[in-house]
């Protein structure tokens, strides 16, 4: 088929790929630029028809295009004017540069001699007939281990790395001279290094304003280390300081962004650096000042929560204020689970991972989205359904974050599926880790690349059915109610939303969570854990009770961190009971309905009959009945495939009381309250500041039904 037979660039690209599969508006296929057994190439089109390519094994777009036998212009629609790429999460396509940059032009712009740059190994090359500057990177032994290309003078896509190369510090071959000097100045980029070296200054270059690897700190042992802080890169100090405690900051003077600008302004660069070194401040001191300012601002914005006697009541009001009319427990428990991301993970501890189970349209995703409004942006990360490989290759930090992954039951089954394995590892070890096989671009040999993301990370996901045993045993599964009364409540909420609109989102709740996150990890002790374990251990439960007990404690700790003082029992009981036994309230109602129908002499009990009795949809009833069949609590007397069920009563339901009542625990005194150990004071992170005035109140949120008059008074007062 000739190129004229293709209607769009996307069709042309897809026709040359193998194992093409469409999920939503995104295609996946085997990447032609490396030996790809499991499709790792994502393909989509922008609004103007431009093809967007992303290989999650790290292959560059140019290499992918070349392997397909195409040119870069084949990715674009046939038009004289190509618009800028839209911002598409996870995609970083290259846009052809019409002019490029030569070594001579770059030297002229920076006020440097071409001969100097050539002596450093720099040269002009051509990429797709466009000039670019080749910049070799050497290690501390002088061996060239990476190559970076400068594509233009300005713009977001100024640089790219040679395929397979990884960022490293620029100028490592000069470490001997730097150690002789006894100090080093870190600057951003190669051109500042070239300028500084022309003045015989001991400089090393960072490959970007956001790039730092802690292993680089070993190069600076025994040295005075300074960082030139450019105005547009304030976060760099926070990235480097934990690894170089003696780091000192040189703040760029007004009107001088970097050393290159000082050189172009014909300033005495050596004297300027000497003066700035003398004025340099310890990075730790600057960070403490920033933290104090940030804490003051967060306390101001979170004042409504800090001054409240019922913080969770504010969460409920915020949820209702956004038009949520369904059962309040799912979003409220998601909020508690999200808070468990802040806990210290001592040996045996576990954060609270949650799967919301329900039929399509039950409001699972809506419940999650409402909760996210009460979290700061740095507190969560969303990966849409249909993008499982992003779990592995996404470069977003996940420490003390909630990972929201849509429709976990859409993950392909099997031990060899990398995304499913990554999820299992996350649920088991509280952080994302997975080993992937990649091909070395130089040798052609395959090596193992270890993907590691620091945690703890909490997984919140959705599903239309209980997940497989490997995943289901590692999280709490919470059924989203879908009976007639819940549907009416949800519709009523939508009606109120139509009539009155949503309440303006309060900044207090996300500011409060941000305030808690600043001081994470929270080391919380539950002094009555032994009594609780003893009480739970007296009741028969599934074999997974040991694993669930650690998550139960994390829910209690989350409440302690939030400073809520009562009724964790009422919140946790239902989800704990359903998770341990597999029998939620909805499943129990369906089983009880079958029992009652049998007692009334009903000859054949089908899913349709149960749905009519419960006034729910056939789909909703089917989910509950199938759960009961898997548990053995109901049996199907109809063995012919495709025929309506003939339901009968099976094994007795497990004990409904998953948790002991609060009154069953030994009464405790002040010393038994859950105690967070690291509350920040007004002065910083030292001292203790009460978040409440000590008011004792055993009432709870008005929206929640009473639990037979039981209050967990053991948790009435959280000592902070």
Automatic annotation (TrEMBL):
InterPro entries tied to this protein: DNA_primase_Znf_CHC2 (IPR036977), P-loop_NTPase (IPR027417), Znf_CHC2 (IPR002694)
Keyword Magnesium: no
GO-annotated molecular function: DNA binding; DNA-directed RNA polymerase activity; helicase activity; zinc ion binding
Biological process terms in GO annotation: DNA replication
Key words, A-Z: ATP-binding, Helicase, Hydrolase, Nucleotide-binding
Domain Zinc finger CHC2-type: 10-60
Native organism: Candidatus Hakubella thermalkaliphila
Name of the protein this chain belongs to: Putative DNA primase/helicase
UniProt xrefs under Pfam families: Zn_ribbon_DnaG (PF01807)
Upper lineage: Bacteria, Bacillati, Actinomycetota, Actinomycetota incertae sedis, Candidatus Hakubellales
